Automatic annotation (TrEMBL):
GO terms for cellular component: cytoplasm. This is Mur ligase central domain-containing protein. The keyword Lipid biosynthesis does not apply. Belongs to the folylpolyglutamate synthase family. It comes from marine sediment metagenome. Keywords: ATP-binding, Ligase, Nucleotide-binding. The keyword Metal-binding does not apply. GO terms for molecular function: ATP binding; dihydrofolate synthase activity; tetrahydrofolylpolyglutamate synthase activity.
Length: 150
């Protein structure tokens, strides 16, 4: 039987604007990184706790990221992989050394994120956070918690 707390965590994440599933017009506010910077600062800057490889482009990012993660893990590094979109389950987006994040970890991380997200959004200085920004912050927190090298 599925954990209702996990479903509640997913419902919270998806309660924000999700440009992956909605065809909404985007403007300069949509791309303002200051709200994300504010959220990550409130969370203790977890994005700075590990080295990262940022892959950009239009084709092959997921495959490239998976190969890099595999090489790093095989070389003895503890490796986190954040990818999108997922095919079936949100947990596919977050892996440490190839293992999916647990539902329990998502529940705990959303509980940690929620008050900080609400604080950032209540000010709305730079617009409202999006689903993708929440997922990115969740990934940074998860990888910091797991002590990944990359």
């Amino acid at each position: 039987m599925p954990d209702s707390r996990y479903q509640q965590a997913l419902d919270y994440i998806y309660s924000f604007v999700d440009y992956e599933t909605m065809h909404l017009p985007r403007d300069a506010v949509s791309y303002d990184l200051r709200r994300m910077e504010e959220l990550l600062t409130r969370l203790g800057k977890p994005q700075l706790r590990a080295k990262s490889v940022h892959i950009a482009g239009t084709k092959g990012k997921g495959s490239t990221a998976a190969m890099i993660a595999s090489v790093l893990s095989t070389s003895g590094y503890k490796t986190g992989l954040f990818s999108s979109p997922h095919l079936i389950d949100l947990r596919e987006r977050f892996r440490v050394d190839g293992e999916l994040i647990s539902e329990a970890d998502i529940i705990a991380l959303v509980a940690k994120l929620k008050p900080e997200v609400e604080a950032v959004n209540s000010k709305a200085t730079y617009g409202q956070l999006t689903t993708f920004e929440l997922l990115t912050a969740l990934g940074f927190l998860y990888f910091a918690q797991k002590g990944v090298d990359f």
